[in-house]
Amino acid sequence: MKKNKTAIVTGGNAGLGYATAKKFCDQGITTYVIGRNKDKTIKACQELGENAKPFILDLDDLDKIPDAISQIVKQTGSIDILVNNAGINMKKDFLEVTSEEFQAIMHTNVTSVFVMSREVAKVMKENGEGSIINISSMAAQYGIPKVIAYSASKTAIEGMTRAMAVDLAGYGIRVNCVAPGFIKTNMSSKALDSDPERKNKVLSRTPMAKLGDPADVANAVYYYASTDSKFTTGTILPIDGGNSIGF
């Protein structure tokens, strides 16, 4: 991969987004880390080093996205890679979820991804190439209790990945999706350690019988971002130790 590429990673200040931003920065890619929390985003970029550029933006403000993209293009001249990683979750009994709560998750996890992708694709079209990588979840692969809105949003992401891939292929833009399984992050460790029954269920249906590392997801995203995958578009790659096919 050429050294002067520019990437955007949404939600890149923590978790899987941070691991992805680190992989890109380590490979010499100028990486714009988009986050809502200014302090957290700046701190993450300081840790990531000189290739990381903090960009403070709340993706729920859809009207601000086009301007944000043009600001980045003014600074860099182009955008080669977009990773739509930012997303929110809510664990709540199906019958208790309000319409507003459902819409809020769809707004962040689906609508903002559409708007980001549309605006970045306009830039990539001018360049005649680009790679967009969406982040899905096991919640799109099978039914997980108490995450109805999140499941709907991630299933939508996988459908959008295929549709975007077809719509944008003629412009030299590839669109793919990574579907992480159960990955060892601070958040997942806390959740699973406090619920031994759930942890046991996760591990027992994962053929490799362990949690993945954030770097496993970052490496898959990097594959899609690089020319190694130049003939690959519209695919969904589970990084899950076999969880989605486990019994």
Automatic annotation (TrEMBL):
It comes from the Bacteria. PROSITE patterns: ADH_SHORT. InterPro entries: NAD(P)-bd_dom_sf, Sc_DH/Rdtase_CS, SDR_fam. The keyword Oxidoreductase applies. Keywords: Oxidoreductase. Gene3D superfamilies: NAD(P)-binding Rossmann-like Domain (3.40.50.720). PANTHER family: 3-OXOACYL-[ACYL-CARRIER-PROTEIN] REDUCTASE FABG, SHORT-CHAIN DEHYDROGENASES/REDUCTASES FAMILY MEMBER. Belongs to the short-chain dehydrogenases/reductases (SDR) family. This is SDR family oxidoreductase.
